[in-house]
């Protein structure tokens, strides 16, 4: 049980840290490139998976925090969800960075 607590806390903190690092280029003040950046998916339903990932992350984070990371299965679900969310966020960041470069 202790391993899942440590893993959940480390992966969650790493996700928030990577999110802050990803926001640095967008907050530096050069917003001229960002004003003309439009991400429009071909099919609107393709946004269902990222929305489910984000909602699942928020729900698991709240549940694990309320239970103080004492449930092993919820901790591992949070770790898995966060890793998939980080992979999705990295690919999205790379795509946006390519568009503005």
| Mean pLDDT across every amino acid position | 90
Helix content: over 70%
Helix-strand pattern? HHHH
Biggest sheet character: none
Rg, rounded, reads: 16 Å
Give start-end ranges of low-pLDDT stretches. Answer: none
Organism: Mucilaginibacter phyllosphaerae
Transmembrane segments: 45-64, 76-96
Protein name: Cation transport ATPase
Keywords: Membrane, Transmembrane, Transmembrane helix
Write a brief caption for the model.
Keywords: Membrane, Transmembrane, Transmembrane helix. The chain is an all-alpha fold.
Description of the molecule:
The protein is mainly alpha-helical and about 100 residues long. The protein has one domain (about 1-30, about 45-100). It has helices at about 1-25, 30-35, 50-65, 70-100. The protein is elongated.
Question: Helices and strands in order, then pairings?
Answer:
Elements: H1 2-27, H2 32-35, H3 48-66, H4 72-100
